[in-house]
Amino acid sequence: MNVSDAPVVADIRKEWDWVQIGVREILLGQPQLTYRPEDVYADCVTGAATLFIDEHQNFAVTTVEADKFTGASTFLIWLAWCSNKGLRHTSFIEMYTPFFERVARDCKCDFVEARSSLDKLNDYYLKSGWDLETRVFRRKIERYREK
User: Fold this and answer.
1) Reading across the β-sheet that carries 8-10, which strands appear in turn?
2) Cα(114)–Cα(116) distance, integer angstroms
3) Angle 40-12-17 (CA atoms, 0-180°, nearest 5)?
4) How many helices (H) and strands (E) does the chain have?
5) Residues 87, 8, 59, CA angle at the centre, nearest 5°?
6) Is residue 60's pLDDT more than 90?
7) Cβ(124)–Cβ(93) below 8 Å
8) Domains of the chain
9) In sequence order, what are the residues at sequence separation of 6 or more whose Cβ sits closer than 8 angstroms to the Cβ of residue 16?
């Protein structure tokens, strides 16, 4: 992956027309999820979440969560969706995992995490170094030691 191919932070207001299609598709496929598309939009607008897009109209929405008991922080890939314009449907996280690990490290997070109830994602996560914790896939981020 070239740096120019990496996802970029985007303005949800400018991208919402096509991003909402993916959010709605995710929600239709996983009816146990309790948020609405408008919640995703609102979190991005207020800065509680960040929208990343690539040149193929694929996206991820991320947040940083803190464990109130341990203080550990997690870079959560809250949503990820492929438009099928240039990538296989399940390959967005697979293709950009190193990118998201770098972003998590830059955010001083202890973990990068993705959650899914979809069985088809198990193989990718488990074969590529993620740990399954009640269907929460997590990778520990090795921080660089600051001198």
Assistant:
1) 8-10, 50-53, 59-66, 73-81, 111-115, 136-140, 131-133
2) 7
3) 90
4) 4, 7
5) 45
6) yes
7) yes
8) 3-140 (3.40.630.30)
9) 41
The tokens for 70 are 């341990």
pLDDT tens-digit map of 105-142: 999 999 999 877 666 667 777 787 877 655 666 778 87
Q: What is the dihedral of CA 43, 3, 75, 108, to 10 degrees?
A: -120
Interatomic CA distance for residues 76 and 62, integer angstroms? 5
Q: For 24-33, what is the mean pLDDT?
A: 88
Rounded to an integer, what distance in angstroms lies between the CA atom of residue 143 and that of residue 38? 35
**72-101 tens-digit pLDDT:** 999 999 999 988 765 554 567 788 889 999
